[in-house]
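Thought: the user wants the 3D structure for the chain below. I'll pass the sequence to the structure tool as-is, report back what it returns, then summarize two notable features.
Action: structure_tool
Action Input:
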Amino acid sequence: MSTRHGEHPEHTAGLDPLAALRTSDDPPCDVFLTGNVFLDIIFTGLDSAPVRGTETWARGMGSSPGGVANMATALARLGLRTSLAAAFGDDHYGEYCWDALEQGEGIDLSLSRTVPGWHSSVTVSMAYEGERTMVSHGHEAPPTEHGLLCPARTRAAIASLTPGRAEWITQAARNGTRIFADVGWDETGRWDPADLADLEHCEAFLPNAEEAMRYTRTDCPRAAAHALTEKVPLAVVTLGAEGAYAVDGSTGESAQVPAIAVEALDPTGAGDVFVAGFVTGTLAGWPLEDRLALAGLTAALSVQEFGGSLSAPGWSEIAAWWQYVQGCDDQDPAALRRYAFLEAVLPAPSRPWPLRRAVPTIGFGRSV
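Observation:
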């Protein structure tokens, strides 16, 4: 099986956000991450949730790599040299996901592996009314003989924290890697702060508001962000429709950027795209408020498209959006000024907004 990307836009348009910082002694990898790759099967065009005992027809569907592939794709499309360590199923789904990430997105999979006799994890996602419902199936990949291998040199790594300590995070920190962390929903309901022990190795932590408040036992996302700076230098809390709030405990600086109001068609992977945008701005040395603005913008653009990983925007989409909103008569000048920093980094838009985005599907042959 292979991928068909339709009229695949030139996501990075040759833009390297770290170009001014690169030297001959650079590590080969900008960002390393690890996790589970899923095949996402996405049903779109549903007017409501399926009703028990009935058959519901969707007006559209597609397939794309999901799970950790969402963030890996978002990073690569923002021009970062991305390395992924993951297990892939020994089946057509695994072959498709590997090809889409390595050949389609240029992600380094040298630390990934195909597990003989192990099938791919699958998520079926149904998008309706601006939300999504998902059903997943999969099994834990068997461990490797030598455990997870982390690149000896990489600028940054993104870690999803779990109870206990991850040896690779300690190893990466010792190698001078800048580590950014997020966390998943605690199904146990314990929300034990001890589960965040690896934050001592991290530069930044990016939970959502509910996660931040539960771990800190606070009732306000901003208070939670300040409390988290006792564990990590930089806390970034996403606030949904209110945007995001960040506190830099090392300098005392705080910043908040409101969310961009958009029509959300499929929120799958939006949190991953936010993290990718923030990491990109951080590695490029941008001010805190600009990093939040880029992260929020990339997340907002992603939810206007279906397809999980394939909805992640690149610099071409960002440039086309910036050109478009500047020509709209109803835009608040103050809001536009918040994104004026983009002028110095964006390529000239090659096509008008909205761009036709990638078409997620399997089995139609690869088009160039």
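Final Answer: Structure generated. Residues 17 and 344 are 11 Å apart (CA to CA). Residues 1-13, 363-368 have pLDDT under 50 and may be disordered.
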